[in-house]
Design brief:
The protein is of the alpha+beta class. It has 6 domains: about 70 residues, Orthogonal Bundle (Helix Hairpins), CATH 1.10.287; about 230 residues, D-amino Acid Aminotransferase, Chain A, domain 1, CATH 3.30.470.30; about 110 residues, OB fold (Dihydrolipoamide Acetyltransferase, E2P); about 80 residues, 5' to 3' exonuclease, C-terminal subdomain (DNA polymerase, domain 1, Orthogonal Bundle), CATH 1.10.150; about 90 residues, Orthogonal Bundle (DNA polymerase, domain 1); about 70 residues, BRCT domain (Rossmann fold). It has a 5-stranded mixed sheet with strand order 2-11-10-3-9. α15 packs across α16. The chain is globular, with a radius of gyration of 28 Å. Bound molecules: 2-(butylsulfanyl)adenosine. The site of 2-(butylsulfanyl)adenosine (IVH) has 15 residues, from β3, β8 and β11. 2-(butylsulfanyl)adenosine binds next to β3, β8 and β11.
Length: about 700
C-alpha cells in the first residue's frame, strides 16, 4: 500500500478505510519490529516508527470495535531470544504413556478398572483415535475469538505462535454456535502428504534442503518467525483434546468431539468407541492397514476412557494422564552396513557403543548412526565393524541395531573389543554387579562427562538456553571459557568476552545479544528444572518434579540430602516417602549434595546469580495441604491409588510408614499394625468418611 489513506486525518477516514489502515499498520509495525529486534537492522528512523504507532493508536481510539486481535498496541517489541514469547499453559500439556502389546493394552484397561474400583462386570467404553504424527499445539478462545495459539514446548511453557497458527485454514478465528466463554483446545498441526511432496519438490528446485518427513515440515513451518511463510504452506489442524474450559463439553469424549466439531473445528477423523479389548485390537489392525490411504501421517492409536467423569477421577501423573494411552505402530526397519563402532561417554559416565552406518532410509528418515546400547548388547548380537545389520526406528527413539546378517559378514572381521579404559580420560572403567552399564568413574574430572553435563544443563527440559547448544558449548569448552555451568552466567556479564564473540565468524551483535538475553532469562529457574538440569543420577524430570514439590526449596532439599546420609534419620524417611524416590535416588542425592566436586557446581551457580525459585506451594486452602498422610487397610469407595492421587493433588504428602511426622492415618477396613503405631504416637486416625470430607473441604 502506498501513501493512500495514510495521509488522511483520522477523523476523516471511513470505517472501511480505518479497518484497512489498521491492517496495514499492524503489518508495517511488525515488519519494523522484526527489523529492529531480530535483524538488528532498523529500516526507518525512531521518529517515523513512533508516528506509525501513534497513528495506529489514534485510529483504534476512534474505532475501538476495529481493534485487531494482533494489534501492535498490545505488544511491545518482539521477543528477542527465539523470536517467540513464552506462554504458560493454564494446564500442562502432557505426554502419553505407550503400550506395545495387546497384553499391555489389556493391562491398561485393568489398571483403569482397579483405580476406579469398578466391578469386573462394568463395561469401560474406550474411544479409539488415530494418533496424528504432527506438532502439538493449543488454541485458546476467549468468548469465541482466537486469543492465543501455542506450541507444547516443555509441556508447562510453550511458544506463542498465534500469528502463525492463524494462517492455517482449519484454525477458526471465530467459533460458531455457543462455545464456552473460555475454551482451550489442543490438537496436531500436520502436513497433508500430498502438500508435503509438493513442498519438498519446491525446496529442492530452489536449492534448499528437503524436509525429512511431514512432521518436521509441519514443525518447521509453524516455528517460522515470518508468518507469511507459514501461510504459504498448506497445513492442517486436527483437534483431539482440550485444556481449560469454562464449562464442560459433554459427558463423554464422543459427545465432546461432536460439540467441538459444531464450533467449527476439524476433529481427529476416523474414531470409534470400543466396548472390549477385541474391538480395540481390531481398530488398531484396521488403521495400520489403511494408514497409507489417509492422506496424513499417523504413528499409532490413542485409546481414551470415554466417560469424562472417569477421566477426571483418573487424573494424571506428572508426565501423562492415566485415562489414555498410545499404542505406536510397529517400528520400521532397513538393512545397511556398520562402518565403525565408537564408544561415547555420557554425562553420567556411561559408555555407550554407537554404530556408524552406511546411511540408509528407515521409515522416511535417513539414518547414519545407531545405538548399540551397552557391552552386553554387543556381545549378544556379536556385531562387528563391517557387518550387514538390520536397523530399526520406532517413533522418536534413537535408531537401533536389532539384528546381524551373518551371511553378509566380511571374512576378515574380528569381534569388537569393548574398551577397558575410558576412551576420554583413560581411567579404568567399572561395572556394578547388578548393572548393564559400564562406567567411567571419573565424574566431573573426566572431561567427556563434564562436557556432557553442560550440554544437558542447557537443554530444552533443563535450563533451556536458546542459542547455546552442543556446537557452541564445544567451542567455548575447547578454549576453556566455559567449563562448568556457572561459567555460562559469568561470561554473559563479561562485556569484553561478549564483544570479542560478536566479532567472531558465525556470531555477530544480534546473536550475541540474543545469547545474553537467553542466559539472563535462565537465571531465575524453577526448582524442578534446576534439579533436573543438575543431572543427578536417577533423577529424571518426573522425580525432579516430585522432589521439588516435597522439599519446596533448594536449601531444604540440600539439607534433607545431607542428613539422609544416615538411613535411620527422619530426613531419610521423608525422602523415601516421596513418590518415585527409593534407595538408589536417595544415595544419588546424598552423593550429589555432599561430594565436593558436584556440590561446588551448585554453590558456584548460586554465587553467579542463579536464583532457584521455590516450588509453588500446592493448593494451600485445602486442610490437607502440607500434611503428611499414611494409608492403611482397604477403602470401600475409592482405590488406594485414587485416594493417594487426590490427596496429593490437594498438596498432601503420602508416606508409606507412620512416624512422628505423620499428620493423619487414613484407616480403611483391616490394617492393624499401622493403626496401633498411630495411636501410640497420638496421631489422628481418620475413617473413610472423615477422609472424604477433607477431600471435599
Ligand atoms: S489426546 C496427554 N489424541 O500425541 C495428551 N493426542 O504422544 C493426550 N496426539 O502430545 C492428548 N494424536 O499431541 C491425543 N488423537 C490424539 C492424538 C494425540 C496425536 C499427540 C498429542 C500428545 C502426543 C503424545
Amino acid at each position: 500500500m502506498t501513501a493512500g489513506t495514510a495521509a488522511i486525518a483520522v477523523a476523516a477516514l471511513s470505517r472501511e478505510e480505518a479497518r484497512s489502515e489498521l491492517a496495514r499498520l499492524a503489518a508495517a509495525i511488525l515488519r519494523h519490529d522484526r527489523a529492529y529486534y531480530i535483524d538488528d537492522a532498523p529500516k526507518i528512523s525512531d521518529a517515523d516508527y513512533d508516528a506509525l504507532r501513534r497513528r495506529n493508536s489514534e485510529i483504534e481510539e476512534h474505532w475501538p470495535e476495529l481493534v485487531r486481535n494482533d494489534s501492535p498496541s498490545g505488544r511491545v517489541g518482539v521477543p528477542p531470544t527465539s523470536g517467540f514469547r513464552k506462554v504458560r499453559h493454564p494446564q500442562p500439556m502432557l505426554s502419553l504413556d505407550n503400550v506395545f502389546t495387546n497384553d499391555e493394552l489389556q493391562e491398561f484397561v485393568e489398571r483403569v478398572r482397579k483405580f476406579l474400583n469398578l466391578d469386573p462386570a462394568v463395561e469401560i467404553a474406550i474411544a479409539a483415535e488415530p494418533k496424528i504424527d504432527g506438532l502439538s499445539a493449543s488454541l485458546r478462545y476467549d468468548d469465541g475469538e482466537l486469543a492465543v495459539g501455542a506450541t507444547r514446548g516443555d509441556g508447562r511453557d510453550g511458544e506463542d505462535v498465534t500469528r502463525n497458527l492463524r494462517t492455517i485454514a482449519a484454525v477458526p478465528e471465530r467459533l460458531q454456535g455457543r462455545p464456552p466463554a473460555r475454551l482451550e483446545v489442543r490438537g496436531e498441526v500436520y502436513f497433508p502428504i500430498e502438500s508435503f511432496h509438493r513442498l519438498n519438490a519446491e525446496q529442492l528446485a530452489s536449492g534448499k534442503r528437503a524436509f525429512v518427513n511431514p512432521r518436521n515440515a509441519a514443525a518447521g513451518s509453524v516455528r517460522q518467525i515470518d508468518p507469511v511463510i507459514t501461510a504459504e504452506r498448506d497445513l492442517g489442524f486436527f483437534v483431539h483434546s482440550w485444556g481449560e474450559t469454562s464449562e464442560t463439553l459433554g459427558d463423554t469424549v464422543t459427545e465432546a468431539r461432536e460439540r467441538l466439531a459444531g464450533f467449527g473445528f476439524n476433529v481427529t477423523p476416523g474414531t470409534e468407541v470400543c466396548r472390549d479389548i477385541d474391538a480395540m485390537v481390531r481398530f488398531a489392525e484396521q488403521l495400520y492397514a489403511d494408514r497409507s490411504e489417509l492422506g496424513f501421517d499417523v504413528d499409532g492409536i490413542v485409546y481414551k476412557v470415554d466417560r469424562l467423569d472417569w477421566q477426571q477421577r483418573l487424573g494424571a501423573s506428572t508426565r501423562a494422564p492415566r485415562h489414555s494411552v498410545a499404542r505406536k505402530f510397529p517400528a520400521e526397519r532397513a538393512k545397511t552396513r556398520v562402518l565403525s563402532i565408537d564408544v561415547q561417554v555420557g554425562r553420567t559416565g556411561a559408555l555407550t557403543p554407537v554404530a556408524s552406518l552406511q546411511p540408509v532410509t528407515v521409515g522416511g528418515v535417513v539414518v547414519g548412526r545407531a545405538t548399540l546400547h551397552n557391552r552386553d548388547e554387543i556381545d549378544r548380537l556379536d556385531v562387528r565393524e563391517g557387518d550387514l545389520v538390520t536397523v530399526q526406528r520406532a517413533g522418536d527413539v534413537i535408531p537401533q541395531v536389532v539384528d546381524v546378517d551373518l551371511d553378509g559378514r566380511p571374512e576378515t572381521s574380528a569381534p569388537f573389543e569393548f574398551p577397558e579404559q575410558c576412551p576420554a580420560c583413560g581411567r579404568p572403567v567399572e561395572r556394578e554387579p547388578d548393572e548393564v552399564v559400564t562406567r567411567c568413574p571419573g565424574g566431573r574430572a573426566c572431561e567427556a562427562q563434564a562436557f556432557q553435563q553442560l550440554v544437558h544443563f542447557v537443554s530444552r527440559n533443563a535450563l533451556a538456553i536458546d542459542g547455546l547448544g552442543e556446537r557452541q558449548l564445544r567451542a567455548f569448552w575447547d578454549r576453556r571459557d566455559i567449563r562448568e555451568p556457572a561459567d555460562i552466567f559469568r561470561v554473559a556479564e563479561d562485556e569484553q568476552w561478549l564483544q570479542a564473540l560478536s566479532d567472531e565468524k558465525g556470531w555477530g551483535p544480534t546473536s550475541v545479544h540474543n545469547l545474553r538475553t537467553a542466559i539472563r532469562g535462565a537465571r531465575d529457574v524453577a526448582l524442578e528444572r534446576f534439579l533436573f538440569a543438575l543431572g543427578i543420577r536417577h533423577v529424571g524430570q518426573g522425580n525432579a518434579a516430585q522432589l521439588a514439590r516435597a522439599a519446596e526449596s533448594l536449601g531444604r532439599l540440600m539439607e534433607l540430602a545431607e542428613r539422609a546420609r544416615d538411613p535411620e534419620t527422619p530426613e531419610y524417611a521423608e525422602l523415601a516417602g516421596v513418590d518415585g524416590i527409593g534407595a538408589a535416588q536417595i544415595r544419588a542425592l546424598v552423593d550429589h549434595f555432599t561430594d565436593p566436586s558436584t556440590r561446588t557446581v551448585v554453590d558456584n551457580l548460586r554465587a553467579a546469580g542463579v536464583n532457584v525459585q521455590d516450588a509453588e506451594a500446592p493448593a494451600a486452602d485445602s486442610p490437607l495441604s502440607g500434611r503428611t498422610l499414611v494409608f492403611t487397610g482397604t477403602l470401600a469407595g475409592l482405590s488406594r491409588n485414587e485416594a493417594k492421587a487426590r490427596a496429593e493433588a490437594l498438596g498432601a504428602r503420602v508416606a508409606s510408614a507412620v512416624s512422628a511426622k505423620t499428620d493423619y492415618l487414613v484407616a480403611g477396613e483391616g490394617g492393624g499394625a499401622k493403626r496401633r503405631k498411630a495411636e501410640a504416637l497420638n496421631i489422628e486416625v481418620l475413617d473413610e468418611a472423615a477422609f472424604q470430607k477433607l477431600l471435599e473441604a
